[in-house]
Design goal:
alpha+beta; Endonuclease III, domain 1; Nucleoside Triphosphate Pyrophosphohydrolase; 2 domains; 8-stranded mixed sheet; 40% helix; binds iron/sulfur cluster
Length: 386
């Protein structure tokens, strides 16, 4: 195994099936220098695999660097508060991943002196660690001979073996695993797993695979038998994401904004946001903003001032949020079991916030121009997993 950030030693590929030998020979010369490959430790491998499960490599790299800079070890992660961990994860989406990393780090400190287990079946006992992450960490960091197939790996194998059924199904996934186990030497499994993911990320992309540069092209059945190997995996066209329209009210009092903390579990759990929610049928955005404010905080506002429309895309739906500003609301805050805080601009930036809320801040900080139409955050929304 090539731990510790050193490039892998060139192994002999004798004993490998000739079909996998080409890939194992290709990988050392083509592996990209990625932050989790530098100074590799089991902890960094674990964090990177958690992050990469729902985030593409190019997007994940800066989040990974920020996270491990702040929490370089299991011990430092376990010692942090959940809010600090969520803040370090801010923008990466799928926040349950960060909460699970934090919980798992606490468990590892209490039960194993901060050491990760080396076997995939033990790793699977940790919060947030499923079969893929367990196999990836066990094979990459500890050399266990288990197959780790992420969506990239499954796509490459489906094309390589001309698998026409959905490679996400358990039945097909097991078939692909057996194909690998029958061909890859046990001591090269981690390297093979990583090489396969690399091939899927760089050449065997979802669309327009670059077969001309592919090390397994001469064996690839999709390449040999289909006019366009990119047709595999065959899948149904994704359905358009539903649009949710909501209203959000930023209440300002003496230069401080009122924020509510979301419940610790579920969608965007533990993050802070302005009061707001979905429009009800037939309701105007302003009426919804006023109603949500009353329901969530007990405050009654005068006229709401439209500020902007914020658009954002989550993994399964899109939102268009009408953002209003209100000053001097009447009443005392009663947040119905949720924590609330009045925060100034500097503190606002220290709290973990959903991406949609982050998009609102520049609009709220802009000087007001009376009578001007409220702007739209644009038609190229950011995307967040929830
Ligand atoms: S030959 Fe083309 S389709 Fe086949 S594995 Fe390589 S890049 Fe993918």
């Amino acid at each position: 195994m090539h731990r510790g950030g050193r490039p892998p030693r060139p192994h002999s590929t004798r004993g490998s099936d000739r079909r996998v030998r080409a890939l194992l020979d290709w990988f050392p010369a083509h592996r990209r220098s990625l932050p989790w490959r530098r100074g590799r430790t089991p902890y960094r491998t674990w964090v990177s695999e958690v992050l990469l499960q729902q985030t593409r490599v190019a997007q994940a790299a800066p989040y990974f660097e920020r996270f491990v800079r702040q929490f370089p070890t299991v011990r430092s992660l376990a010692a942090a508060s959940e809010q600090e961990v969520l803040k370090a994860w801010e923008g990466a989406g799928y926040y349950a991943r960060a909460r699970n990393l934090h919980r798992a780090a606490g468990l590892l400190m209490r039960e194993r002196g901060g050491r990760l287990p080396e076997r995939s079946d033990e790793l699977r006992q940790l919060p947030g660690v499923g079969p893929y992450i367990a196999a990836a960490v066990a094979s990459l960091a500890f050399g266990e001979p288990v197959v780790a197939l992420d969506s990239n790996g499954r796509r490459v194998l489906a094309r390589w073996t001309l698998e026409r059924s959905d490679p996400r199904s358990l039945r097909v996934s097991h078939r692909l695993e057996r194909w690998v186990l029958g061909r890859v030497p046990r001591e090269r499994m981690g390297e093979f797993n990583e090489a396969l993911m690399e091939l899927g990320e760089t050449l065997c992309r979802p669309r327009h695979p670059d077969c001309g540069r592919c090390p397994v092209a001469s064996d690839c059945r999709a390449r040999q038998e289909l006019p366009d190997p990119g047709e595999i995996p065959f899948s149904r066209r994704p359905r358009a994401k539903p649009l949710v329209i909501g209203a959000v009210t930023a209440i300002e009092r003496r230069g401080r904004w009122l924020l509510l903390r979301r419940p610790s579990t579920g969608l965007l759990g533990g993050l802070w946001e302005f009061p707001g929610g979905k429009l009800e049928p037939g309701e105007t955005p302003e009426a919804a903003g006023r109603r949500e404010l009353r329901e969530e905080t007990g405050l009654t506002a005068g006229p709401l001032e439209p500020v902007a429309t914020i658009r954002h895309e989550y993994s399964h739906f899109r939102v268009a949020l009408h953002l209003f500003r209100a000053r001097s609301p009447r009443g005392t805050v009663r947040a119905r079991g949720r924590r609330h805080r009045w925060v100034g601009s500097r503190e606002l930036r220290r709290l973990p916030l959903p991406r949609a809320t982050l998009k609102m801040i520049p609009f709220l900080e802009r000087p007001r121009v009376p009578g001007r139409a409220s702007p739209d955050s644009g038609s190229r929304p950011g995307r967040t997993g929830v």
